[in-house]
Specification:
Layout lengths: L13 H23 L12 E3 L5 H7 L6 E6 L4 H16 L5 E6 L4 H6 L7 E6 L2 E7 L4 H19 L29 H12 L3 H14 L4 H16 L4 H10 L4 H13 L3 H14 L2 H18 L4 H14 L1
Parallel strand pairs: 1-3, 2-3
Antiparallel strand pairs: 2-4, 4-5
Pfam family, one: TPR_20
Protein name: Tetratricopeptide repeat protein
Length: 326
């Protein structure tokens, strides 16, 4: 693709960004198809509730918290309130269908974890989001209060860190002995709009592509292809008329100028310098407060969408972002 009215040859590889975006869309579609057919892209409902010990804490909680908020239920067999709260949390974990993962920790068998979290009494419920621990509540709280807390946790995870949860294969478990066939995949109602968006990108009509993707997301906010395409189209639209040398000069000469750092991060990304783009924005978030901090944080989340939530560079940057926010 050769964008019109641009003088960035050899500086910004927009074609590579577009190709990478298309490849990522195909990969996401393949994972979704695999999940619908019982493949490895989704987990069964039983995997939404896990028992965690000290040996597996880093793998099962810290690492998983880079893709989904992990709620930790500290409990013990002798604790009567735990026997009320535990089943409720397990039911909600399945009802929320992958928006959070429930990790159950038996404090009698895992005294070190209890000490590390400063647990004074049980039941105690914490969350880990992007590697950072957050206290939620203690005791057998009412269900309405627990739901409100979980909704807030999920909102924070999505808005601040781009954590949209994990896919759940509802067909992966059935009556014992029952043979499960692949679920039927209905034809998508947005094929025409998505195709129009792709054609707009090919014609360098970034505004048209943005609008087409937004039309899909207005009806289907979780549409993976539209989210990826929108992030890509908005990035291409932002950089097409930039003077790369001027942008980089501004960023170097004005380290405290948030807008200059955001523009330079866009150029870093389309130039293939992914870690530089992420690092620049994480540092900008660290150095600023209020609206300036929020602007840098939101742009970083948008760039996460361009690269993809499972990319190790995104996971590392989310963890770095969490450290400067909390």
């Amino acid at each position: 693709m050769q964008p019109r009215n641009m003088s960035m040859s050899g500086v910004v590889d927009l074609a590579a960004v577009k190709a990478a975006g298309e490849a990522k869309v195909k990969a996401e579609q393949a994972r979704a198809e695999s999940a619908r057919q019982g493949g490895g892209g989704a987990v069964p409902p039983s995997a939404l509730v896990i028992d965690v010990d000290e040996a597996g804490f880093e793998r099962d909680v810290l690492q998983r918290s880079a893709e989904v908020p992990v709620v930790i239920d500290f409990w013990a067999e002798w604790c009567e309130p735990c026997k009320q709260l535990g089943p409720l949390l397990e039911r909600l974990a399945r009802e929320y269908n992958g928006r959070f993962l429930l990790a159950k920790v038996d404090v009698d068998a895992n005294q070190m974890l209890m000490q590390q979290f400063g647990i004074q009494g049980i039941p105690a419920v914490f969350a880990v989001v992007a590697g950072q621990a957050l206290p939620l509540f203690q005791g057998a709280a009412p269900e309405a209060q627990i739901r409100q807390t979980l909704d807030q946790l999920i909102e924070v995870g999505e808005e601040r860190f781009g954590l949209t949860g994990i896919a759940v294969d509802a067909a992966g478990e059935g009556p014992e002995g029952a043979e499960q066939g692949p679920a039927e995949v209905p034809a998508g109602p947005y094929d025409a709009l998505l195709e129009a968006a792709v054609q707009a990108l090919d014609a360098n009509d970034f505004a048209g592509a943005v609008q087409a993707y937004k039309n899909v997301l207005s009806d289907d906010p979780a549409n993976t292809e539209a989210k990826l395409g929108l992030a890509q189209a908005e990035l291409l639209s932002r950089v097409r008329d930039m003077d790369p040398q001027q942008v980089r000069n501004d960023a170097a000469e004005k380290p405290g100028d948030v807008a200059a750092q955001i523009a330079a991060a866009d150029l870093d990304l389309v130039g293939g310098h992914v870690e530089d783009a992420f690092g620049r924005l994480v540092e900008t978030v660290r150095r600023n407060f209020g609206d300036d901090r929020d602007a840098a944080r939101l742009r970083l989340l948008e760039l996460f969408e361009v690269i993809g939530p499972e990319d190790p560079r995104v996971i590392a940057a989310r963890t770095a972002l969490a450290r400067v926010l909390f």
